[in-house]
User: Which sequence fits this backbone?
């Protein structure tokens, strides 16, 4: 999946054939600038035929202009076709992961084998070790180790189990160990793999608002230059200068922004392809581009900023409580806690107890986002553990000063304090410790240079949140946050005019993912989260959102750079064609012939040839993208103007002059 699809001769041949089929005016009308070029090509072709019949001496010149106008369209179509074929090559890789499977359908107490592709949403099926999952679904029973390398490219197996946020399974993956009962979550043709293939092939590619705005600008410029060129024959007649229709068409094509119009579709498709190579499936090109515009990035602490496997490292009893009493209360409160934190508490407490046989009659009290506590009710009373503020509300009184000091010390060091109570008596504090992922501080600094504010959202207390935010290099944090708080924060920032990005994997994240401008859902998460997000990360790595932002920035930078170059390189064409049109009547215009082009014929021909050749010359840059650098907007603008603005002016002067010299050698003057 992560392997880059290299361009080979086979792909070039396919793109060439595809570019010919795209000459259909009904297809080309979607790109109005190139449609105008095609209209000019048709007219010059007709004029060439007429010149051949009449033998008026313009056959060679008109035919040459006509050929290069057709090549201009062909090169533009080739750029788009090549980008599409790259995507289809990626889609073929995905199709190769499909296989005809047999599903064991469960109907009541009856299990029957049916073709996997006939399963419908809501059906239940069984899988065992060695089976390939026939379709997408949610695990309703069991736990298993699954090989997802066919989808993600990662060889390490993952654990999927019923309940929680890692219950989603994807068709085409293989069960290595364990048995599962799965409920189908999609109908045939609507699976995650089907949607991935459709998206990668570009069948559902939507134009982003920026791309639409740029297209409107290009149409506007084309109309302006069309009116300008249409008015020139009147001026020529007034000056007594005959105006050649071929030269007028050549002038129009050189004036309108054909370079960026020809490369614009390829830039968008290539952006989706770069996201795909990062194992991120974008549901549209719009999602990738908006990622480049975001200025607020919301990040969960656990699993994104930290590794998420917090471990109990200390059991600190309150004054008047023995270590054994604290260990037993901690142990009992975590017996039914299946989280990594709960299991680590049980492991640590067991080492401090003479016996680890649980009493009978325990009633489990599960953790909820509202109470932020868990525990048991049993023969020894009500035992709870949870966040300090939640426990304080539960017991209805302030903590002893010694306990408050322990909490402050743990939180100040970046750890997480969990307070344990028995019958509303504070027994002590559990110290959970997490580790910040390496390299994040540097990446956050890169985002800061781009004007992106990073905000950590966590359920931890403010002291812990502040310590982790400072250590990770974050701009801000929101502590003691509940799931609904994230939604309110997104809405609040959007009301201020900000674009917000976030990640999520659970059903409780789905509303926030749907609200965010850029929502990266984890492939390991629930179906609801994947449906709500506008991107899916196959690696299920929450930090991937940072890479997605950089991909979006690169797409915008590439489009901006090539737009600057396209508009700038028109300047040289003015100096080539305008003197050629009027120099006979107005010799003073020779001063504009700064390139010292040989004749009016060679000047016009050189400009048209350069206008066509610059498109294939820029295709590699459009597909690969301009190199991304984490700099501010003003620095980026200066760099753009220097390299692509000045370069866009100088390169055509040099290129047109070289072509003119070559034409002189061929006696085409």
Assistant:
């Amino acid at each position: 999946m992560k392997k880059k699809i290299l361009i080979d001769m086979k792909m070039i041949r396919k793109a060439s054939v595809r570019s010919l089929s795209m000459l259909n005016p009904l297809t080309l009308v979607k790109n109005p600038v190139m449609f105008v070029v095609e209209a000019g090509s048709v007219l010059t072709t007709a004029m060439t035929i007429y010149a051949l019949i009449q033998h008026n001496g313009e056959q060679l010149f008109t035919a040459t202009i006509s050929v290069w106008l057709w090549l201009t369209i062909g090169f533009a179509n080739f750029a788009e076709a090549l980008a599409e074929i790259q995507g289809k090559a990626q889609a073929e890789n995905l199709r190769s992961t499909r296989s005809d499977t047999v599903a064991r359908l469960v109907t009541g107490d009856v299990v029957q084998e049916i073709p996997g592709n006939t399963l419908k949403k809501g059906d239940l099926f069984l899988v065992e070790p060695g089976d390939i999952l026939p379709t997408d679904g949610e695990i309703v029973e069991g736990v298993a180790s699954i090989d997802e390398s066919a989808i993600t490219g990662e060889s390490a197996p993952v654990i999927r189990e019923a309940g929680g946020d890692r219950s989603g399974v994807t068709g085409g993956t293989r069960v290595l160990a364990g048995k599962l009962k799965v409920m189908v979550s999609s109908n045939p043709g609507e699976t995650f793999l089907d949607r991935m293939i459709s998206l990668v092939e570009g069948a559902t590619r939507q134009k982003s608002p920026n791309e639409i705005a740029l297209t409107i600008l290009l149409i506007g410029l084309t109309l302006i230059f069309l009116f300008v060129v249409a008015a020139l024959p009147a001026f020529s007649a007034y000056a007594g200068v005959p105006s050649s229709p071929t030269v007028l068409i050549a002038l129009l094509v050189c004036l309108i922004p054909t370079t960026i119009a020809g490369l614009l579709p390829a830039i968008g498709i290539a952006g989706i392809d770069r996201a795909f190579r990062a194992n991120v499936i974008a549901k549209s090109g719009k999602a990738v581009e908006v990622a480049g515009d975001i200025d607020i990035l919301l990040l969960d602490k656990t699993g994104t900023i930290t590794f998420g496997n917090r471990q109990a490292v200390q059991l600190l009893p309150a004054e008047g409580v023995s270590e054994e009493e604290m260990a037993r209360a901690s142990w009992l409160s975590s017996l039914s806690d299946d989280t990594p934190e709960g299991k680590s508490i049980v492991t640590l407490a067991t080492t401090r107890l003479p016996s680890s046989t649980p009493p009978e009659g325990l009633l489990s009290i599960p953790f909820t986002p509202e109470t932020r506590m868990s525990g048991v009710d049993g023969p020894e009373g009500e035992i709870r553990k949870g966040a300090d503020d939640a426990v304080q509300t539960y017991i209805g009184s302030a903590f002893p000063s010694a306990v408050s000091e322990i909490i402050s010390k743990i939180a100040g060091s970046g750890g997480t304090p969990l307070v344990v109570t028995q019958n509303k008596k504070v027994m002590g504090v559990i110290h959970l410790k997490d580790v910040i992922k390496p390299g994040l501080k540097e990446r956050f600094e890169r985002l800061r240079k781009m004007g992106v504010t990073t905000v950590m959202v966590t359920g931890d207390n403010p002291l812990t949140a502040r310590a982790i935010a400072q250590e990770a290099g974050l701009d801000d944090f929101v502590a003691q946050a509940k799931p609904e708080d994230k939604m309110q924060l997104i809405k609040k920032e959007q009301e201020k005019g900000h674009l917000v990005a976030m990640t999520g994997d659970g059903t409780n994240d789905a509303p926030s993912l749907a609200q965010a401008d850029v929502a990266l859902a984890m492939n390991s998460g629930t179906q609801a989260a994947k449906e709500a997000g506008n991107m899916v990360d196959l690696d299920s790595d929450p930090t991937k959102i940072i890479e997605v932002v950089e991909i979006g920035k690169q797409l915008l930078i590439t489009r901006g750079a090539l737009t600057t170059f396209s508009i700038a390189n028109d300047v040289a064409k003015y100096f080539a064609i305008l003197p050629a049109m009027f120099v006979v009547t107005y010799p003073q215009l020779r001063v504009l012939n700064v390139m010292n082009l040989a004749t009016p014929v060679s000047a016009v021909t050189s400009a048209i040839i350069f206008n066509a050749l610059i498109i294939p010359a820029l295709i590699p840059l459009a597909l690969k993208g301009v190199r991304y650098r984490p700099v501010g907007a003003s620095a980026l603008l200066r760099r753009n103007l220097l390299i692509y603005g000045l370069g866009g002016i100088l390169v055509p002067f040099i290129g047109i002059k070289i072509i003119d010299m070559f034409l002189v050698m061929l006696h085409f003057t």
About this structure: The chain has 23 helices and 21 strands.
